[in-house]
Amino acid sequence: DYRSEAARVRVDQAAISWNPLSLLSTRLSITDLDIIGVQVEPLSPATPTEATSLPAAPLIDFTPLPVIVDLASVSISQLVVQQPQQVFTVDTLTFSAFLQQQTLELSVSDFSTAGFQFAGDLALVLDGNLPIDAELRWQFNEELYTDSGPASGLLTLTGDLASLQLQHQLLEPYVVNSTGSLDTGLAGEVSGIDLTHRSNTLVVPQTALENLALNDVALTTTGGLDLLQIELTARIDSELAQTATVEVNADWQAGVLSLRNLQLATPTGQLNAGGVVNIGDTVTGTLQYQLTDSAPLDYVDSELPLEILNLSSSGVVDFSLLDSAPQGSLQLDE
After folding, report:
1. What are the tens digits of pLDDT across the range 258-292?
2. How distant is the alpha carbon of residue 187 from its chain centre?
3. pTM for the whole thing?
4. CA distance readout (Å), 15 to 34, 73, 284
5. 48, 71, 201, 214: least buried by Cβ within 10 Å?
6. How far is 185 from 191, CA to CA, in rounded Å?
7. Residue 200 φ/ψ region, left for φ over 0, alpha for ψ in the -120 to 50 degree band, beta for the rest
């Protein structure tokens, strides 16, 4: 067992194979390190520290070791991190590591937990805000929806742990490319994100409309956890309208989606809407809309004994998506 002010650590079994003679060449070479059963319990400080207005210190102040550390193979299984309200379990962690001066190189061959796996290479400079260069491949083996299959992607990180530049490609079940930056706030600055996501085609599953797809999708998210600004543009293909386009401008704050503008345009008409959607245990909202369409019956795949031209409508829609059944009301303006 090991205990410090920060955590209590218990290891059930450990086996090491190393070459003591390697120290003669200022190199610590460990061939194999196998660890089974690790319990980590973070500890709260005895007396809470008070916030100060001092400038943020570097994330790490690491003194280089006098030897090179070479870990050829490290295997950890059954790692459990016990938080007060949560338990995090890692089934398997296998990696190699190489430390020279302030540069740490990691090659993770397997990280598995609860249906999630990742592997990849990572290089850290143990100085300041920890400059990083990483490429990670991940896979989630649970279905996101019926018959979706696994989800997988490739993440590339550069910068440092205070300000990250990232590129991500979702490979399954759709192809989505994401680029942008993430300010973590670890160095004292305000945390925030600036990300753009693009996809050529997203097929929407499990809808009443067959062959519903979003094409030429561009989604931008900027801001922070307190206020996130969202902009979306896409072209919609479905059995009702072959060339519809959608534009969304919204703010997300504390479980409330404020729609500044939602615009849906078809070859014959246009819908504009705005309002507020509350997302919690239930989804409720109020939307104001204005609709104009020169030929609304073009979307009906049947011949009706009537003709409607130049439709114009506006009003307010209240809705609630409950577990039992959706509910809603419509108020039309005169």
Report:
1. 999 999 998 888 999 999 999 888 888 999 999 98
2. 21
3. 0.80
4. 5, 12, 57
5. 48
6. 4
7. alpha
